[in-house]
């Protein structure tokens, strides 16, 4: 398991605290029902509670739940951090297979 120190800061965008229900899909871990802790233009941090989680570098499909106007789009995100409390994810472009460039906001 790849775990990064919480003191290692790599984010460049301003974080906004937001609690939202999300579904995370991955072929190896299945469907996870999680909540965001914060979001930014580059990604999100999801809170976890003992679930089997994808490894750093894996791409997952994420969809916000419970929006008043219907289903949110499903977006691809790369796991960039795992720690005791959750997952750090960054948005990736539809044709990005896990490279280092974030998707344009």
Give the secondary structure arrangement, pairings included.
Elements: E1 16-17, E2 21-26, E3 30-39, E4 43-47, E5 59-64, E6 75-82, E7 86-91
Report on the architecture of this protein.
With about 100 residues, the protein is mainly beta. It has a single domain, classed as predicted glycosyltransferase like domains (Thrombin, subunit H, Beta Barrel), CATH 2.40.10. It is built from no helices and 7 strands. It has a 6-stranded antiparallel β-barrel with strand order 2-3-4-7-6-5.
Strand content: 35-45%
The H-and-E topology, N to C, reads as EEEEEEE
Count of β-strands: 7
The chain-level structural class is: mainly beta
Read across the widest sheet, the strand sequence of neighbours is 2-3-4-7-6-5
CATH topology: Thrombin, subunit H
**Which CATH-level-2 architecture?**
Beta Barrel
The biggest beta sheet, please? 6 strands, antiparallel, barrel
Q: Percent helix among the residues?
A: under 10%
Task: Tell me, rounded to a whole number, the average pLDDT.
Answer: 83
Question: At the first level of CATH, what is the class?
Answer: Mainly Beta
Give the CA-based shape. Answer: globular
Radius of gyration: 13 Å
Distance between the termini: 30 Å
Number of domains: 1
Low-confidence runs: 1-7, 98-105
Number of helices: 0
Per CATH, the superfamily is predicted glycosyltransferase like domains
């Amino acid at each position: 398991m790849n775990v990064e120190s919480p003191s290692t800061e790599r984010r460049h965008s301003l974080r906004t605290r937001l609690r939202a229900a999300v579904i995370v899909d991955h072929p190896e871990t299945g469907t996870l029902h999680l909540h965001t802790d914060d979001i930014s233009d580059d990604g999100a941090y999801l809170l976890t509670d003992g679930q089997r989680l994808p490894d750093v570098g894996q791409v997952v499909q994420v969809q916000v739940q419970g929006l008043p106007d219907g289903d949110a789009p499903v977006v691809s995100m790369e796991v960039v951090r795992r720690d005791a409390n959750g997952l750090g994810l960054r948005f990736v472009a539809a044709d990005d297979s896990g490279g280092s460039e974030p998707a344009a906001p």
